[in-house]
Write a structure and sequence with these properties.
The structure is a single chain. The protein has helices spanning 10-18, 21-42, 79-82, 91-94, 183-188, and strands spanning 61-62, 121-122, 126-132, 134-135, 141-149, 155-164, 170-175, 190-195, 203-207, 218-223, 228-234, 236-237. The protein is α+β, with helices and mostly antiparallel strands and 239 residues long. Among the domains are: 7-42; 126-237, Immunoglobulin-like (Sandwich). The strands form 3 sheets. The chain has a 5-stranded antiparallel β-sheet, with no helix packed on it. Strands 4-11-10-7-8 form a 5-stranded antiparallel β-sheet. The longest helix has 22 residues, at 21-42. The protein is elongated, with a radius of gyration of 35 Å. The termini are far apart.
Amino acid sequence: METDTDDPGKAPLIRRIGAHPVLVGGAALAVVALVAFVLVWFQPQALLFDRVVDENFPTVTDVDAAPGDREAPADSATPEQSATPEQSATPEQSAPAADGPDPQTDPQADGVPTDDGDQSAVSEPVLLAVGTFSSRNRYTVEGQASVFELEDGSRVLRLEDFSSTNGPDLFVYLTAADEADDDADLDADHVDLGVLRGNIGDQNYAIPEDVDLDDYDTVVIWCRRFTVGFGAADLGPAD
């Protein structure tokens, strides 16, 4: 059987490697560090995995506190504490008239109208603007971007039927540039709405109160790591 030592070319090489264990160890560490750097910085593994989200449509609901949730005043007394022998009524005094309503069982007996309706009030969101994503730079972004105004006056950007190529350090921007402009223009004047929560699925992003949507009217899926746009959508008036 032929071994490595039978090859006169291999034997000197093996001896040379064995004679410099420090160099061999340093080279191995360099390779490991390089691989770690690529995985952390470039994150090629992100291309193999999707982050799926499914956020509900945002609403604002005003709900009155239930009577049981209201705290009684600290100095309020219980019926046992407030009743005295002089103030206690006899059964004949406390019994309601036979032909009259019982104030304890009939709320209208004291002239207070009843309301059996739901105390919550929900207002439909108002669609302010909408746009459709287009892809950029060999990446793929699809779906619809919509801006809604909620009952309390706050505004939210909602991405629906959304899907994007996954990647590292992805953010959602509102930019003053147009969808067709180059990446430098998209990044030059923008409002950061936060990290992209998922590259697939419906999701919501709050829009700051001071943002003028007449100026910042384009949504961008932006890779901050490599300063490149994955996709963009010009917002226009809702039909």
